[in-house]
Design brief:
There is one protein chain. The protein is of the alpha/beta class. It has 2 domains: about 160 residues, N-utilizing Substance Protein B Homolog, Chain A (Orthogonal Bundle), CATH 1.10.940.10; about 220 residues, Rossmann fold, CATH 3.40.50. Helices cover about 45% and strands about 10% of the residues. The chain is built from 22 helices and 12 strands. The strands form 2 sheets. Strands 5, 6, 7, 8, 9, 10, 11 and 12 form an 8-stranded mixed beta sheet that branches. The radius of gyration is 25 Å and the shape is globular. This is 16S rRNA (Cytosine967-C5)-methyltransferase. It holds the Pfam family NusB. InterPro entries: MeTrfase_RsmB-F_NOP2_cat, MeTrfase_RsmB-F_NOP2_dom, NusB-like_sf, NusB_RsmB_TIM44, RCMT, SAM-dependent_MTases_sf. One of its GO terms (molecular function) is RNA binding.
Length: about 500
């Protein structure tokens, strides 16, 4: 494709048209069909919202599908092409870079998103090549104009001439080192790939598992539901609907949605007796509630409660023991989500507050028996659910987050009474956000001991279930729990349990 027909943003006129040889339709432009199918249009619009507004696809796509009346196969197609494109963006960008005659960052972002959508249909879905190209070209014509549509057509035809296996071999061969090859083929930034390898090794696993971990991050997770104890029995979670549920592998409160049903259509989810919650999230919450205590067990605290999944499960457990839960959240809009999450619990069980968790230890020292610190983090453990996060996070984020995490954990240890228990939880396996934060806080205190979180988790498993938590290094870190998508089918939740002496 010659540069003299295209500007530096990827917009061009075709060779035949620029030389006066182009075929002219007998139809007026207004009479020609310019629209692609609604599913691809919806997927594209979500990608643009994600890119332009830093939105999350899992918050944008469902309401957009409802607004446009997309259901069944159309909704499923839109969901797959949208999430698949986001997950495998790094891989597709490397392939597209080999097919476009300029750096990708010189293309209009909307053109680049169209190309990514087309690449996923060609290489990641069972869409016939001719349909993938023609429909994506139609999308380009509809959304970004006729000139870019011609470029999209040429680039996607070039992409489609090589099989996925051949492309992956080429990407591996072109990579300067093994980590870069893993990152490109596995569609993760290099720094995240390296951090995940280190986290695997640091938690007693083979660093070579990283390829399986990246693949798990790129696989759509099934929807996991929680049956909140005392509000609904797990076996009755789907009552009143046609949904099929399967028992969770690890947490007794978990049920997995076996079909493509909308979880919000289940009456128990709609009224708050149940909810959508990853099984790993359920497991670490149950473990905190199950740790034996000497003395009172009446006042619990969720220090960083938004958006409220763990708070609702903790609140349900507290209600069964005549305990109360303070659910603290610094962001008012997230506090509103917590209130909605706990709406089915009896009045007076959960007190939702808006405030800075770092101040609670000073304001209410030694007041609580159990404290959960579900610390704000990079979210590297939930990349399969929020794939766009991998492209937004940078190593620079760690400095800000780890400082905040340490302050919150210190506040929690001040807020818990002697003999009480604190659970430090992150949805990230990064060593800087897990063991390094805990070690840093504990170096400055002599009144805290690490508990066996592995034993606590095993105590709350589904009867008869077993769990592979990696090799025990025989030291303090061997007491912690790190879950993994490729091993446990959960988000990569971390759990450290601490007791105030």
């Amino acid at each position: 494709m010659s540069d003299d027909r295209r500007d530096d943003r990827g917009r061009q006129r075709g060779a035949a048209r620029s030389q006066g040889r182009g075929h002219r339709s007998g139809q007026a432009p207004s009479q020609r069909s310019r629209r692609t199918d609604p599913a691809r249009t919806a997927a594209f619009d979500v990608l643009r919202e994600v890119d332009a507004s830093d939105a999350y696809a899992n918050l944008v796509l469902p309401p957009l599908l409802r607004e446009r009346g997309l259901t069944g196969r159309d909704a499923a197609f839109a969901t797959e092409v949208c999430y698949g494109t986001l997950r495998l963006r790094g891989r597709y960008d490397a392939i597209l870079a080999a097919c476009v005659d300029r750096p990708l960052d010189r293309l209009d972002p909307d053109v680049l998103d169209v190309l990514r959508l087309g690449a996923h249909q060609l290489l990641g879905m069972r869409v016939p090549a001719h349909a993938a190209v023609s429909e994506t070209v139609g999308l380009a014509r509809d959304r970004v104009g006729a000139g870019p549509a011609q470029m999209v057509n040429a680039v996607l035809r070039k992409v489609g001439r090589t099989t996925l296996a051949e492309w992956l071999d080429r990407l591996r061969d072109d990579a300067p080192d093994q980590v870069t090859a893993l990152a490109t083929v596995g569609s993760h930034p290099v720094w995240i790939t390296r951090a995940l390898r280190e986290a695997l090794h640091g938690n007693g696993r083979d660093a070579g598992e990283v390829a399986d971990l990246l693949e798990a991050d790129n696989t759509a997770p099934r929807v996991t539901l929680v049956a909140r104890p005392g509000l609904v029995d797990p076996a009755a979670l789907a009552d009143g609907s046609d949904a099929r549920l399967e028992a969770g592998r690890l947490a007794p409160s978990a049920r997995v949605l076996a079909s493509g049903a909308d979880p919000a259509a289940l009456p128990a989810v709609a009224d708050g007796r149940g909810g959508v919650q990853d099984e790993g999230s359920q497991l670490v919450t149950l473990a905190l509630a199950a740790v034996p205590l000497d003395g009172p067990d009446a006042r619990w605290l969720d220090l960083c409660a938004g958006p409220g999944g763990k708070a609702a499960l903790l609140g349900a457990l507290a209600a069964q023991r005549d305990a109360t839960l303070v659910a603290n959240e610094v962001q008012p809009h997230r506090a509103r989500l917590v209130r909605r999450g706990v709406r089915a619990l009896p009045d007076g069980v959960v007190d939702v507050r808006t405030g800075d968790g770092r101040a609670v230890g000073d304001d209410e020292p030694g007041l609580y028996d159990r404290v959960l610190v579900d610390a704000p983090c990079t979210g590297l453990g939930a990349l399969r659910r929020r794939p766009e996060s991998r492209w937004r996070r940078t190593p620079a984020d760690l400095g800000t987050l780890t400082g905040l995490q340490a302050e919150l954990l210190a506040s929690a240890l001040d807020a818990v009474r002697p003999g009480g228990v604190v659970a430090y939880v992150t949805c990230s396996p990064h060593l800087a956000e897990t063991r390094h934060v805990v070690d840093d806080v504990l170096r400055r205190r002599d009144d805290v001991e690490r508990l066996d979180a592995r034993a606590a988790v095993r105590d709350v498993l589904v009867p008869g279930a077993s769990i592979d938590l990696g090799a025990d290094d025989g030291g303090a870190h061997g007491l912690d729990v790190q879950l993994w998508p490729h091993v446990h089918g959960t988000d990569a939740m971390h759990l450290t349990l601490l007791r105030r002496r």
